[in-house]
């Protein structure tokens, strides 16, 4: 499939990092763009309606920015959710995108006309209830992999709620004060669960985190001194984990130099174990540190382990077996008081505005998204996805993905034959399934291989970074500003901007 030069209008669903960077780059390349966002503000997961108490970035400020728009120097090292949303609104204002964004606008359906080669997109104004239709030559889905909260169904939950209990997702728990003097169960041991539990532990009647599996947490500063960005947010940090294809120095690290690589990870594991006192508080995962690469890398929430050690916050390795008014029975046989259940249980990857037939052409029988380079379905023309590549540098992956799509839409990027694309997808999904024990968010999670993904996209476009820049990235944290040159060169290539 090649993009046709007749493509002029592009509809974009979602105004998170993927939607905004796609709109900005395609606009600069001369396309007419229209973004639809169902929230009242831009930001995606950082919008106010989805922010939970204690939400901060995992990346440090200097690495969690788009290439040509740095975060304000006044921001702290780990910006709050509110600050990230303000940064994204600043990006909209700086690049004049507001006129291309329809807020409070839900995409109800998107139907492709095979004859006209156009998408008919039906939207609903959430505030007024009005419906409208638009026609686009190209549709790009940027609703993100955190689109629909996944909340389990528990036995007895009807009676629990009827008696005044509450069950919600972490993204739906927006007010810390709701937990005051109440017994709270937080389900899950990922970053959002620990953030919420830590934020409410001082004012709740009790806070218990239910962890089905204990995972490794990475301190923001090793030995309370060395910022983790110098260890994990570098090419070296990424190279410690085995990629699908080994090149250059990585062949050494996972070949003759594997003892060196193992020793590096082992030393970090020892430091983390001692620093967090994991054995003393009974929260050692009992697995090698490298298992952090299986699904997600979770930073330590400031003060969390101190509250556990002080008894103000409890972590129990169990799950909810049943709920009753005011209490919960756990899988370990314990019964604990419970008035609020907050679920940090992940997300369902959904595209509700595409019909079942289209989704069947985009996904496989297991629901995995079959996307070449995590963006293009091989069987649906004029459709693309961006932001379906969760990673440490998700914002950069979105931006470079937007460049890749722009180059393709302008006819500058030659794709391999469909059979080769399918083979690439098959190999990638099989590798992800094996590497993550199935925890790859339906084929959209590329943690911790952000830079590898970016390198592949840049190579496709023949926009690789210089050798000196790549070498510097081996030794120090990734600086998004290094990638400004890619946008500049692409615009020059297509005589735009």
Number of strands: 22
Mean pLDDT: 94
% residues in beta strands: 15-25%
* Overall body shape: globular
Radius of gyration: 23 Å
Question: Helical percent range?
Answer: 25-40%
What's the helix count? 15
| Alpha-carbon distance between the two ends | 27 Å
Which segments are poorly predicted (pLDDT under 50) over 5 or more consecutive residues? Answer: none
Structural class: alpha/beta
User: Which strand order spans the largest sheet, edge to edge or round the barrel?
Assistant: 3-2-1-7-22
Largest sheet, if any? Answer: 5 strands, parallel
Task: Sum up the structure in keywords.
497 residues, alpha/beta, five-stranded parallel sheet, 15 helices
Question: How would you describe what is shown here?
Answer:
About 30% of the residues lie in helices and about 20% in strands. The chain contains 15 helices and 22 strands. It has helices at about 15-30, 80-95, 155-160, 190-200, 230, 235-240, 250-255, 260-275, 305-310, 355-360, 395-410, 420-435, 450-460, 465-475, 485-495, and strands at about 10-15, 30-35, 100, 105-115, 120-125, 130-135, 140, 150, 165-170, 185, 205-210, 215-220, 220, 225, 300, 315, 320-325, 325-330, 335, 340-345, 345-350, 385. The mean pLDDT is about 95.
């Amino acid at each position: 499939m090649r993009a046709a030069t007749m493509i002029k209008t592009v509809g974009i669903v979602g105004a998170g990092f993927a939607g905004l960077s796609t709109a900005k780059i395609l606009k600069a390349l001369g396309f007419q763009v229209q973004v639809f966002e169902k929230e009242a503000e831009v930001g995606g997961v950082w919008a106010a309606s989805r922010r939970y108490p204690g939400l901060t970035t995992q990346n440090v400020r200097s690495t969690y920015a788009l290439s040509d728009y740095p975060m304000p120097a006044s921001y702290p090292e780990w910006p709050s959710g509110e600050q990230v949303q303000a940064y994204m609104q600043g990006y909209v204002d700086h690049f004049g995108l507001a006129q291309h964004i329809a807020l409070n606008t839900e995409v109800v359906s998107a139907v492709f006309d095979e004859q006209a080669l156009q998408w008919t997109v039906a939207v609903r104004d959430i505030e007024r209830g009005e419906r409208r239709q638009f026609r686009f030559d190209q549709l790009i889905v940027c609703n993100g992999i955190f689109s629909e909260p996944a909340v389990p169904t528990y036995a007895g939950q009807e009676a629990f709620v009827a008696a005044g209990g509450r069950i919600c997702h972490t993204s739906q728990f927006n007010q810390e004060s709701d937990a005051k003097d109440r017994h709270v169960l937080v389900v899950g041991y990922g970053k959002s669960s620990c953030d919420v539990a830590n934020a409410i532990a001082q004012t709740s009647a009790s806070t218990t985190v239910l962890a089905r599996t204990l995972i490794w947490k990475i301190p923001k500063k090793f030995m309370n001194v060395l910022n983790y960005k110098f260890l994990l947010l570098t090419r070296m940090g990424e190279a410690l984990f085995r990629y699908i294809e080994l090149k250059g120095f990585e062949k050494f690290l996972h070949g003759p130099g594997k003892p060196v690589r193992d020793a590096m990870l082992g030393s970090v594991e020892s430091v983390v174990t001692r620093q967090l006192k994991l054995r003393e508080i009974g929260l050692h995962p009992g697995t090698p540190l490298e298992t952090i690469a299986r699904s997600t890398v979770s930073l330590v929430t400031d003060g969390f382990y101190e509250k556990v050690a002080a008894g103000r916050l409890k972590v129990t390795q169990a799950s909810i077996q049943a709920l009753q008014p005011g209490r919960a029975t756990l899988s370990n046989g314990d019964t604990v008081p419970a008035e609020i259940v907050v679920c940090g249980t992940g997300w369902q990857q959904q595209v509700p505005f595409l019909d079942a037939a289209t989704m069947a052409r985009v996904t496989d029988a297991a629901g995995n998204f079959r996307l070449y380079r995590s963006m293009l379905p091989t069987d649906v023309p004029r459709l693309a996805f961006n932001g379906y590549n969760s990673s440490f540098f998700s914002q950069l992956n979105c931006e470079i993905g937007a460049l890749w799509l722009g180059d393709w839409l302008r006819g500058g990027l030659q794709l391999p034959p469909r059979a080769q694309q399918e083979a690439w997808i098959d190999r990638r999904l099989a590798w992800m399934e094996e590497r993550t024990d199935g925890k790859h968010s339906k084929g959209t999670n590329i943690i911790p291989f952000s830079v590898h993904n970016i390198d592949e996209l840049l190579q496709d476009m023949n926009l690789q970074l210089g050798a000196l820049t790549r070498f510097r990235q081996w030794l120090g944290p990734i600086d998004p500003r290094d990638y400004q040159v890619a946008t500049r060169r692409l615009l020059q290539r297509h005589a735009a901007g």
